[in-house]
User: Fold this.
Amino acid sequence: MWTGKAIIQPGWAIFFGTAGDHLPHRHHAVQLVVGLTGTVRLWSEKSGELEGAGAVIAADHAHRLTGGRDPLLLAYVERETDLGRQLDAWCGAGARALSTGQAEHLRGLLRQPECVTAQTLKRVVAIILDSAAASGTSPFHDPRIAQLLATLPRPLPERISTSELAARVSLSPGRFGHLFRAHTGMPLRPYLRWLRLQQALASVAQGCRLTEAAHAAGFADSAHLSRSFRRTFGIAPQVLLNPAFSLKTGLE
Assistant:
């Protein structure tokens, strides 16, 4: 059973607590695991058994946590974001252990999930890669893309075309795609998938059933929401219905 608190934003999610994903599974997000009070133990299809202060697990790589009920810090980063690609490359297509020093630094940086931002995640990647470049890069901002994102309809329609959005800001589809990725750190399609998940989970946090939450976020039905949630995080969205699970989406 999952118990704890989490925050989700387009492209990433952070969880603090006890995890219930002890069966082999895989998901499209790159995963960071750090023990909050003890050792992390996990199995990965390529790397076998790992034990240490923490680890990073590559996207779409079969794995399972083999420890007990010790509290964990879990971070999920979309593989198609710039940060996700860097972490995925660092893993070497399997799971890679963190040093004790890296894990300790990350615990201090991420101890309050509600305060985590995209810039925080850049610092996380810099710590893992032992690089100053990832944390020192200034974020790119395009006011046209920012305004477009602020005015996207809620719920999102089931179909949104790149051409339609590009026309709204008077850009060609190609130029729009380039600026969108520079502004958000990921292509349009995965951004919209994470935004739908964020909107659906905001409805769940307000007490809606999964079917209602799915429709409120533009998913066809609860099965569509469940497939997308599993593909991204490797678990069923029903875990969010546990009263001991606290969720923050930024859309409350």
